[in-house]
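Anyone up for a design puzzle?
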């Protein structure tokens, strides 16, 4: 409900889900990921946990921890 008040106050509208997805993908169409359709070396492109969570991080993606 808060977004309705914000829209009225700002005299703007929030993007639709489709518009948000398009913008989030940088305008790319028909791609599974923002970097293309191949998932080769996916662990290097995404900040995902690699190892036995939360005890061991293998650092395959070169991230020691999530960015804040």
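Challenge accepted. My sequence:
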């Amino acid at each position: 409900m808060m977004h309705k008040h914000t829209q009225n106050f700002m005299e703007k509208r929030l993007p639709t889900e489709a518009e948000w997805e398009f913008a989030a993908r940088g305008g790319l169409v028909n791609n599974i990921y923002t970097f293309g359709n191949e998932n080769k070396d996916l662990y290097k492109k995404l900040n995902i946990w690699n190892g036995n969570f939360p005890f061991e991080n293998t650092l395959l993606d070169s991230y020691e921890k999530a960015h804040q």
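A detail worth pointing out: The chain is about 30% helix and 0% strand.
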